[in-house]
Write a structure and sequence with these properties.
The chain has 177 residues and is an alpha+beta fold. It is built from 4 helices and 7 strands. The strands form 2 sheets. It has a 4-stranded antiparallel β-sheet, with helices on one face. It has a 3-stranded antiparallel β-sheet with strand order 1-2-3, with no helix packed on it. Helix 3 crosses helix 4. The chain is globular.
Length: 177
């Protein structure tokens, strides 16, 4: 199989179709077949997976004798959604929450290794490893990064990282406000 053109990782430059030339054995010509290009959502890697936090319906009953159901309920009761600032599209919140969950684990590992809040280079590295874009890290460290249609803002307190989910600015950037 022969692909015409070059692949690009830039979603804005990605073609809507790719022409594939299929060579038929025993035939003198090739038949071009248009194939749709893969769709990229522009969301961060951590935002593309399922929501890692169990949801809880407070009115749902459960078997108190089943240890797995009790454990799931206990985890769900501990979960507190990340606060939002501004109007964030409802479809973007679960992905941003997944990024916050990923970053909490990364920052906990970094802090456990050094006993202090991570520095600016470590924060930027963790944000990049999550697949976040439009990263801004300032002293403190205070940071902001895009998870697609939502921004993840954060800072470090004595208790650990503090996160807020917000909509991107009109130009698509995420400021540290």
């Amino acid at each position: 199989m022969l692909l015409a053109g070059c692949a690009s990782t830039d979603p804005a430059a990605a073609p809507s179709t790719v022409t594939v030339v299929v060579s038929v054995t025993g035939a003198d010509s090739s038949i071009p077949v248009p194939v749709p290009a893969p769709v990229t959502s522009g969301a961060a890697d951590c935002a593309r997976g399922p929501n890692p936090v169990p949801s809880l319906d407070p009115s749902a009953s459960f078997d108190v004798n089943d240890p797995e159901q009790r454990a799931r309920r206990a985890l769900a009761e501990q979960y507190r959604p990340t606060p939002t600032r501004g109007v964030v599209p409802a479809a973007a919140v679960p992905g941003a929450e997944a990024c916050v969950h990923f970053l909490r684990m990364q920052f906990s590992l970094l802090a456990a290794g050094s006993g202090a809040a991570p520095g600016e280079p470590e924060v930027e590295s963790a944000l990049r490893s999550a697949g976040l874009t439009r990263i801004i890290v300032r002293s403190g460290p205070v940071f902001a990064a895009s998870a697609g249609d939502a921004c993840v803002h954060g800072s470090f307190t004595a208790a650990g990282p503090d996160f807020v989910i917000a909509p991107p600015a009109a130009d698509g950037s995420c400021g540290t406000g």
